[in-house]
Amino acid sequence: MFSTTTNPTPNITLYTSATPNSFKISIALEELALPYTARAVNLTTQEQKEPWLLEYNPNGRLPTLTDHDTRVFESGAILLYLVQKYDPEGRISYKPEETPGYTEMLSWLMWQMGGLGPMQGQAHHFTAFAPVRSSWGIERYTTETRRLYDVLNTRLTESPFLAGDRFTIADIATYSWVRASPNLLDFQLGEWPAIQRWHDGIAGREAVQRALKVPGSSITEDQFAEIVREKRRVLMGWVEADVR
């Protein structure tokens, strides 16, 4: 059904929600100034599992992107697709011939995809969304997330951006998760001065500010933070899970 034919003019639809992985793609699209249609997907009703969307993403997850008759799923694959096809100037990427920048970009992108995202995602689950309290889960995943933040801070002490002197998809992927940690994990980014500097610089970019409003939502960031804080307060009173 889907071909790999390239088209000089994008015809992009982003199937998305207000999640870190989805924000990666809206940020990249805004940074590249690409025209696209955002289709909000309702996670609370499991719309991402409906047959029509499984045609685009067999894994039933977000984000998912279509461009003409090409489908792309998994946020890392979508980021690579966008820069390979629509970023010849290297606005948010290094090119394969630009080593070591390109290899650094790939390394840090995979670090986020295989490490920071999964570990912080589990930390979010156990600290704010789990149906029962698990001290083991909270300790295991918040400790590992903190270790990964130490790794990130060390890198950003050495370099203005993850891959070098250029803002790239590696920064976009990682920022989309780091920005969620104060609300969901009560992390104070000031504990990691280099991360704080890097985070604030990215947050001030106009394209990033536009992207974080996609898809549109009736709830503000402050309202979301209060909802999460209430969930965390309730969680502290839940019965310890039997993990045997």
From TrEMBL:
Q: Does the keyword Transferase apply?
A: yes
Q: Where is the GST C-terminal domain?
A: 98-234
The GST N-terminal domain covers 9-90
CDD domains for the chain: GST_N_Ure2p_like (cd03048)
InterPro entries named among the record's database cross-references:
Glutathione-S-Trfase_C-like, Glutathione-S-Trfase_C_sf, Glutathione_S-Trfase, Glutathione_S-Trfase_N, GST_C, Thioredoxin-like_sf
Q: What's a single GO MF annotation on this record?
A: transferase activity
UniProt keyword annotations, A-Z:
Transferase
Which first-to-last residue range defines the signal peptide? none
Task: Give the highest taxon in the source lineage.
Answer: Eukaryota
UniProt name for this protein? Glutathione S-transferase
